[in-house]
Amino acid sequence: MIKAILVFNNHGKPRLTKFYYHYAEDEQQNIIKETFQLISRRDENICNFLEGGSLIGGSDFKLIYRHYATLYFVFCVDSSESELGILDLIQVFVETLDKCFENVCELDIIFHVDKVHNILNEIVMGGMVLETNTSEIITRIEEQAKLEKSEAVVDQSLLFHRYTTLDHKSAIEGNRSISLLL
């Protein structure tokens, strides 16, 4: 089972964190710091998985990661997960982000955090893998975007209707007050 998904930059600043196991806020921050320290010190030629840090569960858990440009994508998993399967899952996540944002970068993750979380929720929910087909994930994200746009149109029309109704009422009240003054 996946215990946490962390994305941080080369300086250790978290850009996306998703914990599937309850940790207090300060404990989460310590896990992020420890994970960054463990991973950032590793040479590029070394394999992409290692035993979890003392805070995330020690030898019962593994840290599986990929380093793309300025970002580290880290999955903290228990010992029952396949390292190669999780590396493939990280690849699916990054490819999906890349297709949704057209060459994803750190700023996309920062400024579109809701969309990134939606993409991640299409792939992993509650620590379990839901979908690994990139085109299926993108289809679901596009459907969700269409739904959000249609809801925004309905909200705008309701707002316009309320505004024009209020404006009409105030105009009538204004005419009444003018006629009273005459």
Structure description:
- The chain is of the alpha+beta class and 182 residues long.
- The chain has helices at 25-40, 83-101, 106-111, 113-123, 134-181, and strands at residues 2-9, 14-19, 49-51, 61-68, 71-78, 124-125, 128-129.
- The model has no long low-confidence stretch (mean pLDDT 85).
> How is the biggest beta sheet arranged?
5 strands, antiparallel
Q: Which of globular, elongated, flat, extended, rod-shaped describes the shape?
A: elongated
How many individual β-strands? Answer: 7
Average pLDDT score:
85
Q: Provide the gyration radius in Å.
A: 24 Å
Name the structural class. Answer: alpha+beta
Spatial strand sequence of the major β-sheet: 2-1-5-4-3
Report the span from N to C terminus.
78 Å
Low-confidence stretches: none
| Number of helices, counting only DSSP H or I runs of 4 residues or more | 5
Elements, N to C (H/E): EEHEEEHHHEEH
* Fraction of residues in H or I helices: 40-55%
* Share in β-strands: 15-25%
Map the helices and strands.
Elements: E1 2-9, E2 14-19, H1 25-40, E3 49-51, E4 61-68, E5 71-78, H2 83-101, H3 106-111, H4 113-123, E6 124-125, E7 128-129, H5 134-181
Antiparallel strand pairs: 1-2, 1-5, 3-4, 4-5, 6-7
Helix pairs in contact: 2-4, 2-5, 4-5
